[in-house]
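Dear support,

We are seeing what looks like truncated structure output for some complexes. This example has two components. We would appreciate it if you could run it in full and send us the complete token output so we can diff it against ours.
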Amino acid sequence: MSRPAPPAPAAHDPRRLLAAPGARAERRTLAGHRAGFGPTPYLGGPHRLTEAVQAAGLTGRGGACFPTARKLHAVAAASGRAVVVGNGAEGEPASSKDRVLLAEVPHLVLDGIQVAAEAVRARQAYLYLAGVPALVTVVRAALAERAAARTDLVPVELVPAPVRYLAGEESAVTARISGAAAKPRFTPPRVFERGVRGRPTLVQNVETLAHIALVARYGPAWFRALGTPDEPGTMLCTVSGAVARPTVVEVPVGTPLRDVLGAAGGGTGPLAAVLLGGYHGSWLAGAPAADLRLCNADLRPHGATVGSGVVVALPENVCGVVETARVARYLADQAAGQCGPCRNGLPLLADTLAALAGTVGTVRFGPHPLSRMIRGRVDQLTTLVDGRGACHHPDGTVRLVRSALRVFGPEIARHEHGDCVGRSAPGLLPVPPLPAGPDSWW
Amino acid sequence: MVTVADRIRVDPIACDGRGICAELLPELVGLDEWGFPLIDQRPVPPELAQHARRAVAACPTLALRLIADP
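Here is the complete output from our reference environment:
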């Protein structure tokens, strides 16, 4: 009585997650989703998914690029009934790919949650979601349809994520779902050992779950038909800044950065630099960066990673030092304030970068010993906070700042002479204000 | 006899920066400019093992740990 599953999409079509045919309203329905992708691809027992994901070489798309099969295996092997969490917090201000994915193909993410739950024998799952009302409506409707169709193995509870940079850090995620503030905790134990209410917890980025749903359907060889042998598959990128059409695109991992920017209409002019991987990521100088491929093999030697697919193009008339100082302030404000070195060090680092950027009105400096002192203080503070938090917030902040010092050396020198390329340019990188009220961690 | 090398680790959330560890174990623990411990990450040498255990026991917030080296 059930229709046969539709054939696998062409393996070399770079649109996979975002490949579904038909109108968006239709794709969002369970019937429309199944017409394109077929039924939820349960594999009939635990471990088979882990093997398929292992063979596919899928890595986490939330930023850390951790091998997904290892997480699945660790959760399945831990003692206690497992929990699955789809992480859609997307606290990265320059990223919108998770929201776009959920809005376009909510059922693909929900399929991924179900097959992952089957693989780790979970009986409870959560979707942790930044509270964009329109998106919550879409996901609620999708969940209601699935409940009515009675096809899901485990119930999925929607948990709102606070709008905080660190809300998506995996131990913050499990803390919030367990009823506490969404703040990172000291590890070990890692969440795959003890997460939601002390249970072994699989926390996967929603894009990773959508890839899992495709690997379960079409197999590892299909998945590997795109990407590089070491970093297979496609990834979503949020391309913004000085490009003609800021957008979310799906590209094979290893696509030249030039083409990724091209998918967003290309740069609006010569680019001074590109920010990769988000606010815990790295700046790369613009012209050489365009020749690199968007994969860790190419990016790691330059101190960058693909991270969560954030690509921001910095035009020549916007100052990278000022931008970095603005983001450093934002990151300092977003700290959980739990660890002394981060609580004390990040605000000082932001102050010092503001001085370097010349955005502090009281500091006027020409080619003067003071500028050397300020630069020395930045080095000192980055060394002092690096690796000294319970989570990677100080380390990620340091990574961004050090990349700025590498890439924007000539601009820093310009600042030391009282000049700046971006005198009249407004801020480029989004730095959302802190949510008001003491309950902003819930 | 097999000796297990330990490393000192601090839980930075629990740590209040009281500085007792740096007083009891200055060989391996310094303090940063805000009074939080800077830990020597190398394995604790055998002659300091007793002092390290004492420092761990004396931490008022139980933030200092000895982790067996894998």
